[in-house]
Amino acid sequence: MIIKLLPTQIPEFWELIKYAIAKVYELEDKDYQSNFNSILFKLLNDKAQCWIRVTEGRKLIALMITEIQVDRISGDKYLVPDVLYSWRVSDDNQWIGDFEFIKEFAVKEGCKRIIVESKNPRMWQIFNLLDFKDSFRRFTLEVL
User: What is the pTM assigned to this prediction?
Assistant: First the structure.
């Protein structure tokens, strides 16, 4: 079952949310606070959404943070699943079901597309299963 946390529920789950953020972004200690503060601000002000997947017994399995954004050129709304983290190995069908749920949310919110970014090869497999198309690549050069 997927549940959308209300902004008032975020403090109750904050330690788990921080853990997922740190794991997904592979943050260094020095980068924790600024990233956590930015996401916390968005969640508490309903500018981002936190979704959890739980078992029938209400045990947390996975967490996703999404944000609705607007394309600067076209003005089209799109949904960005920003943090995708699972405490258990989930099979493809579970992820497909989760994304169908998120897709319905995107449509309800008037989003024209869902745009995802990940450096995790397992997530690439899932995105391919879901018919996501490669639209650009990001290259990084460390200079410091």
Answer: 0.86
